[in-house]
Write a structure and sequence with these properties.
heterodimer; A: 449 residues; alpha/beta; Four Helix Bundle (Hemerythrin (Met), subunit A); Rossmann fold; 434 Repressor (Amino-terminal Domain); 8-stranded mixed β-sheet; 19 helices; flat; disordered C terminus; B: 332 residues; 11% strand; binds guanosine-5'-diphosphate; binds magnesium ion
Chain lengths: 449, 332
């Protein structure tokens, strides 16, 4: 299969090495072959892969086999470090000009997501930095592109500057800046038409706009699904315009996104933001380390945890932990947790971040799971307050009543009760174990059942 | 007759000069890098050896052909080279393009590339794909083409989600001089398509082209929505949709395979429109898709204008990739 994660692919190679005291050159050769294939399948640029494999070989040969990690794990660790390094640190700062307005220009290929990203960036600037941006419609070519930006402006209640499709984009940009000064906007976001990097006339138009408005940022918008051509595109745009950063879009898809890595490696320009959905608040800071995991097919546990953190209130989490420790966790707490998990987003999105989840049998059909969840909820809701607090009072007639009330059957009720008891036991063990260790004190607030 | 000669004569015979010129021009950028690299490779290696194959593997992978398909291809080439006892790299060139065309067609013939339009009654074409690949533009171009062929065409504005999408389709409708059926932004796409079918029937339209909102294939709810749209079409007209076209952006990498698989599961895709081949991307992914799945490419997009849609022709596609070499050969 084409899209197996690196971790899976390495299993076989690893088996051969386990038990050896040292990683030999031959071992490394076999492993780097697998790594090479995995990276290529993730659309990492060919040249970048070549360099990377060379460095990995140098670092991996002769590694002592550490107790805590298998040789395979060690090599993956090296690969991940190298990938993260290549993508650079996290950089999601946006320039601020001392002479407002700050001007940002959005450029990229057709269909990359420039217009949507322009809207998202405006939203972010206002929400996070309390700024007042003016949106500028310079795409006079694509049918209804201006209308698209105007609609987004409408959704955000933000002004959009446009001069129709007959005007020259360079003039539009110039007039827009004058207008922004007049109306005291501190940011100007210029949406330009998508164009091919090899279309010299249209590329010249971007240079003309740049020279005229002297932007503080030029963001190259790149579709995360781009293949081997990503570097050619990024190199051309960068050579012509000296872009200041990259925004990667459509990362909410299931692409491995190797293009991300290649762009940074080839142009030296950092990826600053990532588009994570079609809604206007779905623009996030880009995290190189998570991207590295994803390229390797190792899931995105960090994002999952962060999502949990953002949606769970700290105090509640502490209380919950105490309950877990003392095993006084009740069905009411369970319901609470379920609603918190739901707040984190659709279950299928969350599952996609768990390494290997896509391969777990029961998780394959996500809709089935959502239904299952609804059943669990219905069963708990059909319990009396007393039953929720103390499930030990449960007897046959109570169970029958609950099954009837929730539209399920007694065996489903039984299963939940059993799972709940096991979970309580496990929680107690886990929390007591973790108490010994220090750390941020954050525990996953829910239990995937 | 050598394979290259066959390819060339095919264009002469069938009066396809025009087609091949369009491919040549549209794929100029694509071709330069691809055939340039193969030529360079062949110039540097006199002998066909392991290193040669390794570099060839590189050239193909940079064309987005995809690891699995490249491995298959290289294996077959190795076999052919041995069988025909080829030593000179010049001769390999032909075998390469021959194999590319072979992978492409498999056991099928060239008819698979024709659009399935009924000779009488309404034909419905559903157009699907991820965001920004060129669905709406391709519909505009297709409307233009079908109308030029004397068909009556109608468009359905099934993208009720993206800002400005309805207006975009309306502009294409105006350009082609065909009617567009729409509802408000945010309305149910299945309802729009339902309306459009009713309208198309009552006005005796030949072809109804249905636009849909772009969606990433891993969004289960959105894929279900698409399946529902298809069911509505099936219910209204037996045998419809006559075509479900998946639009793929030629710059897309290996994810295009996921797109092809998942969209097929939801809507039984019958053909692919490969867009933006006028850039430098090589669109090698269509080979991978053909190698792993049974979906033919029906059209390629070679620009943003109404005329910039070509019927796909694997021979012409490969011809496009190798045009420089063919000319060279003819001269020498
Ligand atoms: N250069 C080039 N651009 C194209 C081609 N097809 C579509 N586009 C452009 O790609 C962008 C997205 O197209 P659109 O039809 O809106 O995509 P949709 O979201 O799939 O409907 C637009 O700017 C189109 O002009 C093509 O074959 N070549
Ligand atoms: Mg569209």
């Amino acid at each position: 299969m084409a899209f197996e994660g690196l971790a899976d692919r390495l299993q076989n190679t690893i088996k051969k090495i386990t038990g050896k005291g040292k990683v030999s050159e031959q071992d490394v050769k076999e492993m780097t072959r697998e790594i090479r294939l995995a990276l290529l399948e993730a659309d990492v640029n060919f040249k970048v892969v070549k360099d990377l494999i060379k460095r990995i070989k140098e670092r991996a040969v002769g590694q002592e086999v550490m107790e805590s990690l298998t040789p395979g794990q060690q090599v993956i660790k090296v690969v991940k470090e190298e990938l993260t390094e290549l993508m650079g640190g996290e950089q999601s700062k946006i320039a601020v000009s001392d002479k407002p307005p700050t001007v940002i220009m959005m450029v990229g290929l057709q269909g990359a997501g420039k217009t949507t990203t322009t809207g998202k960036l405006a939203n972010l600037l206002r929400k996070k930095y309390n700024r007042s941006p003016l949106l500028v419609a310079c795409d006079v070519y694509r049918p209804a592109a201006i209308k698209q930006l105007e609609t987004l402006g409408g959704q955000l209640s933000m002004p959009v500057f446009s001069m129709g499709t007959e005007a020259n984009p360079v003039d539009i940009a110039k007039k827009a800046i004058e207008k922004a000064k007049e109306d005291h906007h501190d940011y100007v976001l210029i949406d330009t038409a998508g164009r091919l990097h090899v279309d010299s006339d249209l590329m010249q138009e971007l240079t003309d706009i740049k020279e005229l408005v002297n932007p503080d940022e030029i963001f190259l918008v790149v579709d995360a699904m781009t293949g081997q051509d990503a570097v050619n595109v990024a190199e051309s745009f960068n050579e012509q315009l000296d872009v200041t950063g990259v925004v990667l879009t459509k990362l909410d898809g299931d692409t491995r996104g190797g293009a991300a890595l290649s762009i940074k490696a080839v142009t030296g320009k950092s990826i600053k933001f990532a588009g994570m959905g079609e809604k206007l608040d779905q623009l996030e800071a880009f995290h190189p380390e998570r991207m590295a995991s994803r390229i390797l097919g190792m899931g995105d546990v960090l994002t999952l945890i962060e999502k949990a953190q953002a949606n769970v209130d700290e105090k509640q989490a502490k209380e919950l932990q105490e309950k877990m420790r003392t095993a006084t966790f009740t069905f009411d707490d369970f319901l609470d947790q379920m609603s918190q998990v739901k707040k984190m987003g659709p279950l299928d999105d969350l599952l996609a971040m768990i390494p290997g989840a896509n391969k777990m049998k029961g998780l394959k059909n996500v809709q089935f799971d959502e239904k299952q969840l609804a059943h669990v909820e219905a069963i708990i809701q059909s319990m009396t307050k007393k039953e929720r607090q103390d499930p030990s009072i449960m007897n046959a007639s109570r169970k029958k009543r609950i099954a009837k009330g929730s539209g399920t059957n007694v065996s489903q009720v039984n299963r939940l009760l059993k799972q709940f008891e096991e979970m309580k036991k496990m929680m107690k063990q886990m929390t007591n174990m973790q108490k010994g260790k220090k750390g941020k004190g954050f525990k996953m607030p829910f239990n995937p059942f | 007759m050598s394979f290259f000669q066959k390819l060339k004569s095919k264009f002469k015979q069938e009066n396809q000069e025009e087609v091949s010129t369009k491919y040549k021009k549209g794929m100029e950028k694509t071709r330069k890098s691809f055939s340039g690299r193969i030529n360079d490779l062949i110039a540097r290696y006199r002998k066909v050896d392991e290193d040669f194959f390794e570099e060839l593997e590189e050239v193909l992978i940079t064309a987005d052909v995809g690891v699995n398909t490249v491995m298959d291809l290289i294996d077959e080439l190795r076999f052919e080279v041995q069988r025909r006892n080829i030593k000179d790299t010049m001769e390999v060139k032909e075998v390469i393009s021959e194999k590319l065309v072979e992978i492409y067609y498999g056991d099928d013939n060239e008819e698979i590339e024709a659009l399935n339009i009924q000779s009488s009654g309404l034909s419905v074409v559903l157009v699907v794909g991820v965001n920004g690949v060129g669905k709406t533009t391709s519909i505009g171009k297709l409307a233009h083409q079908l109308k030029a062929e004397g068909k009556t065409v109608m468009l359905a504005a099934g993208d009720t989600f993206r800002a400005g999408a309805i207006e975009q389709l309306e502009i294409w409708g105006e350009r082609a001089g065909v009617e567009v059926i729409k509802q408000n932004e945010g309305s149910d796409p299945a309802a729009v398509i339902f309306d459009a079918i009713k309208a198309a029937k009552s006005r005796n339209v030949d072809v109804l082209l249905c636009d849909t909102a772009g969606r990433l294939q891993n969004k289960v709810n959105l894929m279900n929505e698409l399946a529902k749209v298809k069911r509505v079409i099936e219910r209204e007209i037996p045998g419809a949709p006559h075509e479900v076209l998946l639009v793929l952006d030629a710059t897309t990498g290996q994810n295009a395979l996921n797109q092809a698989k998942t969209f097929s599961e939801a809507t039984d895709v019958t053909g692919i429109v490969l867009t933006k081949l006028d850039g430098t991307a090589k669109g090698g992914i269509v080979l991978a898709i053909r190698n792993e799945m049974n979906i033919p490419v029906k059209f390629v997009g070679l620009g943003e204008k109404a005329e910039d849609l070509q019927k796909f022709d694997a021979n012409a596609f490969v011809y496009g990739l190798f045009a420089d070499m063919l000319e060279e050969q003819a001269e020498s």
